[in-house]
Amino acid sequence: MNENHKARLHHGSCHCGDNKFEAIVDASAGTQCNCTVCTKLGATTTIIKPAAFKLLTDPAKLATYSRMPEIANRYFCARCHVMVYGAGNLPAIGGEFVSVPLNVLDDIDLCEVSIAHWDGRHDNWQAGVASKRYPVAAAS
Ligand SMILES: [Zn+2]
User: What's the predicted TM-score (pTM) here?
Assistant: First the structure.
């Protein structure tokens, strides 16, 4: 979990502005994941506890998508379709979480974010993050 001394209040939004949030997050480091959805989304995210996240706009302006709704959902702007955040419950990473795409923070420069990689494609959460991308093909 991303609860360290670099965490501070940031503001995020989708492209059209229908959805806005604030989150207490360390935006200096993010992760990418090789799962089938994250690969297509291409987001750089970080994980925080739900209490550190506050949606400031009407949740009715969000659409949702998940390949495993019992674990996690992603929330997208129903108008401009940008992913606004994800949320779920995964014991391997500490239980309930919100996933904040650093891409949608309005007050950072993504070029300053260091990136590490999850092997979500193989539900290999216990392996933690790596400096290089995990292969898409299963390790033998
Ligand atoms: Zn939007």
Answer: 0.86
